[in-house]
Amino acid sequence: MFPLIGIFGTSIYIYFYGVVWYEPILLLVFWFISGMGITMGYHRLFSHKSYQTNTFLEWVLMIFGSLALENTVLKWSSDHRKHHSFSETEDDPYSIVKGFWHAHIGWVLKNTTEEKSRIVGVKDLEKKSAIIFQNKYYYHIAIIGGVLIPLLIGLMYGRPLGAVLWGSFLRITLVHHATFLINSLCHYKGKRTYDSSSTSRDSWFISLFTFGEGYHNYHHKFPSDFRNGISWFAFDPSKWIISILSFFRITSHLRKTKDHLIFKSKFETLHTTLIERLNNSNEIYQNLYKDRLSVLSKSANDILLSWQKIDINVNSISSYIDKKHLKEYRSEIKKIFKDLHNISRKLNKRGLVTNTI
Ligand SMILES: [Zn+2]
Ligand SMILES: [Zn+2]
Fold first, then answer.
1. Cα angle, residue 103 at apex, residues 101 and 104 outer, rounded to 5°
2. What are the angstrom distances between the C-alpha of 257 and each of 181, 223, 280, 334?
3. C-alpha 296 chain-centroid distance
4. Which of 66, 98, 235, 319 counts the most CB atoms within 10 A of its CB?
């Protein structure tokens, strides 16, 4: 009903009464609040514990997340942890293997009464005061915050129906389908840079309206990392806000995957893909590139091993020598990637493309 009322109801309302600027702003503000409640709260804080914070922010994120009407933290986290632990199996609630529609919204519609109450693997969250309160008053919070507050704002400027259509129904439709796209499109189309065996994909485009959650291949590979988009230019507002709050000590213990592990997974994915492509090609190409690939593989493994030794004592990285080595490893591994991409381009030119990279 939400998409029907949100899209058609709002369109009919606009046709008869037009738009006032308060309404798109109301939609954007409530979208931001409820969307951040889901990504920063439900997802990165509660489901993955990728950072820590104080009880006050836990309450704020619980309330904001409730406004998205995506169920309680416990149910959301239980489903989500199953999605990560049992990806693409019968126990993955939104498995892409069952089809795009199932992963997108079908699983919500099919949800049986038993399944709705089946909450497992979230004992660590049950004692939090915000969660205990939400379990008792979920619908009260969602309706007061998600519907009544937009209605009151609408009454203040004289268009309560317009405010509810924009700030509640249309906004909830957008928040829902943005989240659902992570489960469907981000397991369907995009690059698999960090793990080619997973169906999850990276999509910068989806990140634009999911507060940075589109880098899903990286997230499936390193789920406890507080970032989803790791490069400085990757659009990930959730990561930026968590980082900014850490300067004020509101967030702490931000979990970050070590760089050598990220490079290792990137290297292994690209190398495996190139080997697969060569195996499917003829002997001429195999002779041309296989030896080169094994030399690059050996160099990369040597560098990553030395890098790992320094990273183990990451807290002691203070010496000039260690810093110098890190800089060297980074630049050497980047050269190796450049070589691998060159080989990949040459194979592309010869039509030896797979859809993995
Ligand atoms: Zn996923
Ligand atoms: Zn996740």
1. 60
2. 25, 9, 34, 18
3. 32
4. 66
Contact 113, 75 (CB under 8 A): no
Distances from the Cα of 179 to the Cα of 39, 304, 311, angstroms: 9, 36, 35
Query: What ligand has the least distance to the C-alpha of 200?
Result: 1
Domain residue ranges in the chain? 2-252, 259-349
Q: Which ligand is nearest to the CA of 81?
A: 2
Q: How many CB atoms lie within 10 A of CB 351?
A: 7
Q: Are strands 251-252 and 52-53 parallel, antiparallel or unpaired?
A: antiparallel
C-alpha 332 to ligand 1 mean position (Å) = 32
Look at residue 202 and give its three-state secondary structure: strand
Strand partners, 252: 52
What separation in Å is there between the alpha carbon of 8 and the centre of ligand 2? Answer: 32
53 phi and psi angles, rounded to 5 deg: -150, 180
Name residues with Cβ closer than 5 Å to ligand 1, which is an ion: 200
Count the neighbouring beta carbons within 10 Å of the beta carbon of residue 331: 9
Tens-digit pLDDT profile for residues 284-293: 777 888 888 8
Q: How far is the CA of 168 from the centre of ligand 2 (A)?
A: 26
- Whole-angstrom distance, CA of residue 285 vs CA of residue 296: 17
Per-residue pLDDT of 309-357, as tens digits, reads 887 665 555 666 777 888 888 899 999 999 988 888 887 776 655 444 4
Using DSSP's 3-state secondary structure scheme, residue 252 falls into strand
